[in-house]
Design a protein that fits this description.
It is a single chain. By secondary structure, the chain is an alpha+beta fold. The structure holds 2-acetamido-2-deoxy-beta-D-glucopyranose (2 copies). One 2-acetamido-2-deoxy-beta-D-glucopyranose (NAG) binds next to loops. The site of one 2-acetamido-2-deoxy-beta-D-glucopyranose (NAG) has 2 residues, from loops. GO terms for molecular function: FAD binding; geranylgeranyl diphosphate reductase activity; geranylgeranyl reductase activity. This is Geranylgeranyl diphosphate reductase, chloroplastic.
């Protein structure tokens, strides 16, 4: 019954992405799509948005990459164990394989006084959290970000558990979303969030505030912040060699016209936290992922209209607003974001944006567009995320759950998990690490979040197929039980739902609502349940 748990998860997950506008700035993409951006006032601008090409997303691909990650670890461990002379045949006088791994995996001790040097490329929530944990854990940490002065007039959604888990001061949160309205193709509205307790909410933060806070904290804990553009990386040819990174150091300079000074940096470990168009991913030939395109207009609406969105986010479904996703109106600091996304018809994104404008028209009338954005959103992790002592986190790795586009939490979490693994394996920065250690982080991340990707993928296929199915989807979300598990999964990033009664009720309701809307999905539904 895992499937239903996330039925509304897709709904509750609000679209935000860490793949910021800078994701478009990197040249040399395998495929370019042109997104025409239009303002309300008729001003038209054209922007070429580059996004990685790749195979079409599917549950199979995700399953495969999870399986590959899981399978590769033991194989490499076996190989390493053999090289180290440890027998792989367990016998009662010998250590278990687990023990053997602990021994084999520890890299050579670094010379006295020399710490493990780690460079984190990219200073978003993922990179900054990673650098913070690395610095605290005793590693010599460098955080390279090309836009330290970056100021996006933008908000982001973070689940409540992130506040505690990342020890965020509550004054970082601009808005607390407690209500979510789902709107079906026939404009049937279902209120979600009824089951929320008073102290439960989805936090809205401004990215420049959050990112800056996380970076400053990393610096306070000992990470070296570099205002620079990473350009190139020379791989080590042996275990003893270092990575040599080339970057353009901007020093204190801000703005687009600044000229940097070319510098190099030698490190033992490289973490790519550089977003959807990751240069690090290219350097290690991590492969591409399928992506969705998300389009969003930030709109300042009249105050009385803004009042309605004070604590509310809206999600619209229907063929008119997206063939395979949903469209949204989302409250920001002092304005709303109106947008939509799609994988299957990226060229039609303008049409769908027009669709959401029309559907939401009564509530956003008189709005003035203050900013237009388009982001590629990864659909599933990259085929390979680790090579030697280099690995990827966040959007660079492809950690954004399908349907949701919600990446801030997963980025920060992957950064933290990656850093913990490095700190533990290097014994607080005193030993060299190996590829095995980085694979261990991948394995843990996948086993923790992999099922979510697969489930959401299946759900998208099931629910985003026809307007009839969408009607039943919205209908389904009326259930308190669904609301509960949905918000729990979102707020706490745990899958609850061990309630047999709720499960049975849900199944009944699902089937009857599907029959009611006369879709042909009932057998499929039964199979999934
Ligand atoms: C690493 O540091 C932590 C806390 O500072 C300490 O508890 C732990 O024992 C250290 N580990 C090693 C292997 O030195
Ligand atoms: C459902 O569809 C079938 C055939 O596709 C049709 O005969 C039937 O009348 C429909 N039922 C309802 C309630 O629309």
């Amino acid at each position: 019954m895992a499937v239903k748990t996330s039925a509304c998860l897709a709904a509750a997950l609000l679209t935000q992405t860490t793949a910021a506008a800078d994701a478009f700035a990197v040249a040399g993409q395998p495929q370019k799509i042109s997104v025409v951006q239009r303002g309300l006032r008729g001003a038209a601008a054209s922007q070429e948005s580059a996004a990685p090409a790749g195979s079409w997303a599917s549950a199979t691909a995700v399953a495969a990459s999870v399986a590959v990650a899981a399978a590769v670890v033991p194989r490499r461990q076996r190989k390493a164990a053999k090289l180290a002379g440890a027998s792989m045949v367990p016998n009662k006088n010998q250590r278990t394989i687990r023990d053997a791994k602990t021994i084999v995996c520890a890299g050579p001790r670094l010379p006295e006084g020399r710490k493990l040097r780690v460079a984190v490329i990219g200073g978003g929530p993922g990179g900054a959290s990673c650098a913070d944990a690395l610095a605290k854990g005793g590693c010599e940490t460098y955080l390279i970000e090309r836009k330290l002065d970056n100021c996006k007039p933008c908000g982001g959604a973070i689940p409540m558990c992130m506040v505690g888990e990342f020890d965020l001061p509550t004054d970082l949160i601009d808005r607390k979303v407690r209500k979510m309205t789902m709107i079906s193709p026939t404009n049937n509205e279902v209120q979600i969030g009824r089951t929320l307790k008073d102290d439960e909410y989805i936090g809205m933060v401004r990215r420049e505030v959050l990112d800056n806070f996380l970076r400053e904290r990393a610096a306070e804990n000992g990470a070296t912040l570099i205002n620079g553009l990473f350009t190139q990386m020379r791989m080590p040819k042996s275990e003893k060699e270092s990575y040599v990174l080339t970057y353009n150091d901007f020093g204190d300079a801000e703005g687009d016209a600044r000229k940097g000074v070319k510098k190099t940096l030698e490190v033992d470990v490289v973490i790519g936290a550089d977003g959807a168009n990751s240069r690090v991913a290219k350097e290690i030939e991590a492969g591409d992922y399928e992506y969705a395109i998300a389009f969003q207009e930030r709109m300042r609406i009249p105050e009385d209209k803004m009042e309605y969105y004070k604590e509310r986010a809206e999600m619209y479904v229907g063929e008119d607003v997206s063939p395979d996703f949903y469209a949204w109106v989302f409250p920001k600091y002092d304005h709303v974001a109106v947008g939509t996304g799609t994988v299957v018809d990226k060229k039609g994104i303008q049409k769908y944006q027009q669709g959401i404008r029309e559907r939401a028209a009564p509530r956003i009338e008189g709005g003035e567009i203050i900013r237009v954005e388009a982001h590629p959103i990864p659909e599933h992790p990259r085929p390979w995320r680790t090579k030697d002592r280099c690995t990827l986190i966040g959007d660079a790795a492809g950690y954004v759950t399908k349907c949701s586009g919600e990446g801030i939490y997963f980025a920060a979490k992957s950064g933290l998990m990656c850093a913990s693994e490095i700190v533990a394996a290097s014994e607080n920065g005193t030993r060299q690490i190996t590829q095995n250690d980085l694979m261990e982080y991948i394995r843990k991340f996948d086993s923790k979040y992999g099922p979510t990707y697969i489930v959401l993928d299946a759900l998208q296929k099931l629910f985003y197929t026809s307007d009839a199915a969408r009607e039943s989807f919205v209908d389904l979300c009326e259930l308190d039980y669904v609301q509960q598990v949905t918000f729990d999964s979102y707020l706490y990033k745990t899958v609850q739902g061990n309630s047999p009664i709720g499960d049975v009720m849900l199944l009944g309701k699902t089937v009857s609502s599907l029959v009611k809307y006369n879709t042909s999905k009932v057998p499929e539904m039964r199979q999934l349940a």
